[in-house]
Amino acid sequence: MRRFDACAQLRAGSVVTIGNYDGVHLGHRALIALVCEESRRLGLPSCVMSFEPMPSEFFGQRGETPGRLSTWRERYEQIKLAGIDVLYLEPFSHSTANMTAEEFIEKVLVAALNVKLLYVGDDFQFGKGRKGDVRMLREAGQKYGFELHEMSSVQVDHQRVSSTAIREHLLAGDLDAAAQMLGRRYAMSGRVVHGQHLGATLGFPTANIRPRRNSLPLTGIFAVRVYGAHPAGPIDGVANLGYRPTVGGGEALLEAHLLDFHGDLYGRRLNVEFIAKLREEEHFATVELMVSQMHLDEAQARAALKKIAS
User: Fold this and answer.
1) Rounded Cα distance, 78 and 73, in Å
2) CATH number corresponding to 8-160
């Protein structure tokens, strides 16, 4: 869909919600559920409008932006799974950043999306300098003929569900708390690429996936479940997510060693679900010491996964 061009599917009007939707967590899902319900009632397509890259990534320095929970494809897949008809992905650029709140309403909401009913969160702001707010949207709705609804935050254990809170849980290694806010286990997906093939020579072959994020939301060694490697279902594994300081490091990489699995996974798209954090990444003085720790990691991963399954 080209920027500011009305999608043919939206010409009769649309029911829209706007946001980064990073992680597509329980708060996002609650908004999406309302949008889908109203779109069915009105006979109009449902639409999520989001941005790529996210504004915080556009304005921030690489490596200094908040860890990204989901790539654009992961967002798309979760939003589609939730039942949305159209994902309108707006390229975030200098012209987008300099768009006034009034221009955003006229060019995007009215001209491109033909909005009839708009749902936003209770903290929604938009436009240059974030000067657009709910009051402005209400006034614009009266002018352009669309209705606005605010949604209060969703809470889990008396804590507001947000992408920021999920990042904090992931950084702290509390994967269960993050899963409660997401409504599912945190996961990363991607195609398996060739690496240094060092793992295979050490007895730990890995499926290597590039995270495709400016900043990682978590790093370390994890017990994982890997989907997409076998048609019968997920395979248990142990994974390293980070920069591999012992073997040169550099580019961020997700390396998953699938337990008791033998097969060629190159080019296969996998979904790696994080179950438990075992430890932080660390630098070892020798490869032998690293391999010794990898055996301990495998034993810990097996125990953690067995505990979860029982």
Assistant:
1) 9
2) 3.40.50.620
